[in-house]
Amino acid sequence: MINSFIREKVFPYVMITLGAVLAAFALEEFLIPSTILDGGITGISIIINQLSGIQISIIIVVLNIPFLVIGFKQLGKEFLIKGIYGMLLFSVMLTVFKDMENVTETELLAVVFGGVLLGVGVGIVLRYGGCLDGTEIVAMLLSKKMNFSTGQIIFFINIAIYILAGILFGWDRAMYSLLTYFISFKVIDMVEEGMEQAKAAMIITNEAEGIAKMIYDRLGRTCTILEGEGLISGKKTVLYCVITRIEINGLKRIINEHDGSAFVTITDVAEIIGNHIKNYSSGIN
């Protein structure tokens, strides 16, 4: 019982702490001193900081508040708590590392090592259900309504930020920032084990209707309902749905809320033909 509590409730926050510290260290000790931008809200915060002198940690918290509210409404209380914890710790650690001596003044080293550390930090946070940047929330929600993945939407947003950085600080800063983004994104992908990778979930449950409806409402995914029969347990309803890696934590929360005794398997999907995993409508018909 105690081991289960530590594994499910405590350990994720330990890992989110580690990820937030690594991400803040990468920004303050490698990237920000060379005016190399991260993407998303953090990138916008760096731009505002460079132009106004307002402390970057304050800007990040203020800009992320609306997205946390949206995330709470769409993704639930647990996501909100982890998101607030991760973002606040991230902001605090930015302040802590701000006055430390920079690790390197060489821009290429800053890009490579800053990008790797940033990717590891953000990847850890995402893997354990947290969030450091409101852009991720917006991208997840928009991906339900658009024919683009979460990663693609984040990429489009970041390209716009880097173009603005090029106009304001010079195109070499924009190119360094873009290179950092590619490095960090690849590392995030490795740490998260492919957060955009499609996953097939098979759920054997007695609460199929409630779970299927909640998957539709929260994740925008439809389920195929199958009839099954267990050798001992008798007739069962089986739900089959395809989700992305980043939505696995959300799926687990839904199942735990409705049927803690459900039997679930999640497997990799090599290829998808058709658009059946995405819900483009705005509500339940």
Overall description:
The chain contains ten helices and four strands; from the N terminus they run H-H-H-H-H-H-H-H-E-H-E-E-H-E. By secondary structure, the chain is an alpha+beta fold. It has a four-stranded antiparallel sheet, covered by helices on one side. It starts with a helix and ends in a 17-residue tail after the last strand. Mean pLDDT is 83; it is low at 280-285.
Q: Which structural class do you get from the secondary structure elements?
A: alpha+beta
The percentage of residues in β strands lies in 5-15%
> Could you tell me the mean pLDDT?
83
Helix-strand string? HHHHHHHHEHEEHE
Cα shape: elongated
Binned, the helix content reads 55-70%
Strand order of the largest sheet: 2-3-1-4
Number of helices: 10
Tell how many strands the DSSP assignment holds: 4
Calculate the terminal CA-CA distance, rounded to whole Å.
42 Å
Stretches where pLDDT is under 50 for at least 5 consecutive residues are 280-285
Radius of gyration from the CA trace? 20 Å
- Largest sheet composition: 4 strands, antiparallel
